Amino acid sequence: MLTAVGVPAAVLLVAGADAQRPVEMPAATVVAEAPPCCMELVAPAPVAVSSGDAAGGRVQWVASSRGSVREVRALPAGVAPERGLQVKTILVARAVSAIFPEIRSIGGMRPDALRWHPDGLAIDVMIPNPGTAEGIALGNQIVAFALKNAERFGLQDCIWRGVYYTPGGAHGGGYGHYDHVHITTKGGGYPTGGEVYYR
What are residue 124's DSSP bridge partners? Predict the structure, then answer.
């Protein structure tokens, strides 16, 4: 039996598009080519949820006027330690872990002279073999993915291979970060314990 529910604003904020991996790209096109994030939630009419699927972490959304169905799944915890991270930072860390399974290490909250890591606003996505063509391509894909989903992630910036990327453009020179992609969000506040992060 389907029970009608309203779509919470948080679901609309975290719902993205199709979860696909990008093809390899040169560093110059990092911003232009990126996979859209996650899954698209289309709800042109009242939305219904199957209560049987909700307990298993899977929610089925039905748009009755078109008869279309989109599945929205909760993102599990990824490889980043989430202690001390704010909600948008957790969301991007989980999304990167889900979309890029070759990432085995993501650093999070830590002491630092700047406030981004201590305040839970930044993660460091460690790139395997970062000096190889494959490692550079993977870092480029992660930057492109974050920028493509900047609004959803509350993205402030990414730093990779000496370039400082923002949703408004890129600036090169002297930024370091040759072995990891640094991603900073605007935070969104600290978790209260009841958050669900959606693909």
Answer: 107, 182
